[in-house]
Amino acid sequence: MNTKLNNRPLYEDVADRLREQIFNKQLASGSWLDEQSLADQFGISRTPMREAIKVLASEGLVTIKMRRGAYVTEVARIDLEQIFTILSLLEGQAAKETALKATEAELNLLDHLHHRLEKAAADRDLEQFFEINGKFHELIQEIAGNRWMNGVIADLRKVLKLHRRDSLTSTGRLQNSLVEHREILRSLLKRDEQAAELAMRNHLARGLEALR
């Protein structure tokens, strides 16, 4: 009997490819997504393309306009402010819970990630810094262990990723971000939940300022 699991649905693979094109700005903010043209480009029918676009719409990366079609989401200033406000509350709470729940092994993992972050900053490797920064935040959320909260954070960060890299190119932002991460880590290692929450919220507030 063949017990092989079914392959991943085609529309999920298509969604991954579209998402990457959006993050890489091959599909620019505000651009119209021509279903037929994209389907032809990917060598698929319109049905999986339509389903993939629905996935990206549920993540906030695509906006579907009545009788006008789907467009890559344009993130306005007010959107950024609202997203950062929510992230500040949720990620602050995640840092607080991590300070209370983390095992020594998990704290060591955070410390290891931070050392890698320091190296990326010293090398001026923005791509590596951005990737490790994401892993640092994700590990804090994983340790906190609230899957509902983490799901909201993940969706918001996908939208934020449309602009997030730009903030690190601001003068002095890379070094300031590193200092803020040091404070978050220091608070976590001390298991000071109030300081960890405040450090995380301050970090996100500074990130919003950098995008301004």
Write the topology of this structure.
Layout: H1 10-23, E1 32-33, H2 35-42, H3 46-58, E2 62-65, E3 69-72, H4 77-101, H5 104-122, H6 126-144, H7 147-168, H8 173-189, H9 193-211
Antiparallel strand pairs: 1-3, 2-3
How would you describe this protein?
The protein is mainly alpha-helical. It folds into 2 domains: 63 residues, Orthogonal Bundle (Arc Repressor Mutant, subunit A), CATH 1.10.10.10; 135 residues, Up-down Bundle (Four Helix Bundle (Hemerythrin (Met), subunit A)). Helix content is 74%, strand content 5%. The protein has 9 helices and 3 strands; from the N terminus they run αβααββαααααα. Strands 1-3-2 form a 3-stranded antiparallel sheet. A hairpin with a 3-residue loop joins β2 and β3. The longest helix has 25 residues. The protein is elongated, with a radius of gyration of 19 Å. The N terminus is likely disordered.
Tags for this entry?
212 residues; Arc Repressor Mutant, subunit A; Four Helix Bundle (Hemerythrin (Met), subunit A); 3-stranded antiparallel sheet; 9 helices; elongated; disordered N terminus
The N- and C-terminal alpha carbons lie at a distance of: 60 Å
The count of β-strands is: 3
Structural class: mainly alpha
Mean pLDDT: 90
**SSE pattern:** HEHHEEHHHHHH
Helicity, in percent?
over 70%
How many DSSP H or I helices? 9
- In CATH terms, what is the architecture of the largest domain? Up-down Bundle
- Describe the global form: elongated
What is the CATH homologous superfamily assignment of the largest domain? GntR ligand-binding domain-like
CATH fold naming of the largest domain: Four Helix Bundle (Hemerythrin (Met), subunit A)
At the first level of CATH, the class of the largest domain is Mainly Alpha
Tally of structural domains: 2
Proportion in β-strands: under 5%
List segments where confidence is low: pLDDT < 50 over at least 5 consecutive residues: 1-5
Gyration radius, to the nearest Å?
A: 19 Å
Strand order of the largest sheet: 1-3-2
Largest sheet: 3 strands, antiparallel
